[in-house]
Amino acid sequence: MKNHILSLFLLLAVCAAGLPAYAEKADRNKPMNIEADTLRYDDVKQITAFTGNVVLTKGSIVIRAHQIDVRQDPDGYQFGTITGAPDKPAFFRQKREALDEFIEGESELIEYDGRADTVKFIRSAVLRRLRGAALADEVTGGLIVYENLTDTFSVDGSAAKGAASGPVGRVRAMLTPKPEAATSAPKAGAAPQPGPALRSTTTLGSAPK
What we know:
The structure is a single chain. The protein has a six-stranded antiparallel barrel with strand order 4-5-8-9-7-6. It is built from one helix and twelve strands. A hairpin with a 4-residue loop joins strand 10 and strand 11. The chain starts with a helix and ends in a 35-residue tail after the last strand. It is 8% helix and 44% strand.
């Protein structure tokens, strides 16, 4: 059982690092703490379950859920399920490396597939990027999938209603411009540099002659 609990800790750390952001590197060396109302281990099914007001912290990582289940297949691949309560979705938060920015994610269900190396935010999924305490970007949909192997993520709005016969959902995104770096501002007293000359073209996409 001790080894299986250790596998759970490694799984959650990998799951946390699988978000579309440059995660805080120092988190991997921080101790992990888990609090829950109950812990159940099934040796036959190789499943460990933390249930009831589960709070996991590891450095800047914070995961809150009603239940966290983890299992390992015969080949050693790990699979995790993080489930929210009916009135409170599963929640994830982590600081970005070397920036005053945080990534937050919420959904009814979060699944980690160690074999495919993917993280899924399922039903009422939201991903946010915050600069300090201010919301910078937000993406919502029925299903958000992050693929570690290709460092890409996709958002599916059609899964928002949870049934093929229901209305088709929509992906919604709110994106703010990246703040200009202080070094980009012209120095005091310096004459402004002329910009490149614009030349007209009558064909879209063609190079100017």
